[in-house]
């Protein structure tokens, strides 16, 4: 009788632990800081995503949508040298001037002074203040992690969103800066209205 009771208790305890573990998994998955990136122009995190064009990027390959950091750029936000990773040390490959293989980041070809359609993909949507786009200056230092000194810190495009929630895919258009040539980085910043954070997306382009 005692043996049967012990076995029943053990089964009951195992079931409870199993449910608790499953519940924890669901909660942690549902609340993960998850959310969006640019795929036009193609961002570094999208290139690193599983099955993307750049291999061995580390954790970012599983979470291209999670480059979330403090908002308020350029006065606030991620530290210099950690802008593309939004201060996430486990996404540090995004800050490096070279890919993990040592080659240059692949670029999207664009033309200065012409209209361009920027596109974001979202895995979770948030009330949105705006989208802003910055670009590196002529003669910027391509051999180190991106800093504010490398960027024109006045956005060349601002798209207000007035607290609305975007659809799962969002495109908007704007004019690219003129007078640039060669390799540059376009930094897209998606600012969230009801949290203290924004999402950062670095894309390499060739003008």
UniProtKB/TrEMBL annotation:
Pfam family, one: LPMO_10
Lineage of the species this protein comes from: Bacteria, Bacillati, Actinomycetota, Actinomycetes, Kitasatosporales
Compartments (UniProt record): Secreted
Span of domain Chitin-binding type-4: 35-205
One GO CC annotation: extracellular region
The entry's keywords: Secreted, Signal
Domain of life: Bacteria
Main location: secreted
Signal peptide: 1-34
Keyword Signal in annotation: yes
CDD domains: LPMO_AA10
Residue ranges that the Swiss-Prot or TrEMBL entry lists as coiled coil: none
Protein name listed in UniProt: Chitin-binding protein
């Amino acid at each position: 009788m005692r043996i049967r009771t012990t076995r029943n208790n053990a089964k009951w305890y195992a079931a409870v632990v199993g449910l608790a573990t499953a519940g924890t998994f669901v909660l942690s998955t549902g609340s993960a800081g998850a959310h969006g990136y640019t795929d036009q122009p193609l961002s570094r995190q999208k290139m690193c995503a599983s099955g993307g064009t750049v291999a061995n990027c580390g954790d970012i390959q599983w979470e291209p949508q999670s480059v979330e950091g403090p908002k308020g750029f350029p006065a606030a936000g991620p530290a210099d040298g950690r802008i593309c990773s939004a201060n996430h040390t486990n996404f540090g490959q995004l800050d490096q001037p070279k890919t993990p293989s040592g080659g240059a980041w692949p670029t999207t070809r664009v033309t200065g002074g012409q209209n361009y359609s920027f596109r974001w993909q979202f895995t979770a949507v948030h009330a949105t203040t705006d989208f802003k786009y910055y670009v590196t200056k002529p003669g910027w230092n391509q051999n180190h992690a991106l800093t504010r000194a490398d960027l024109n810190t006045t956005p060349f495009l601002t798209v207000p969103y007035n607290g609305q929630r975007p659809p799962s895919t969002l495109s908007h258009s704007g004019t690219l800066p003129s007078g640039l040539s060669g390799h540059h980085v376009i930094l897209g910043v998606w600012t969230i209205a009801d949290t203290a954070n924004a999402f950062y997306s670095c894309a390499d382009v060739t003008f």
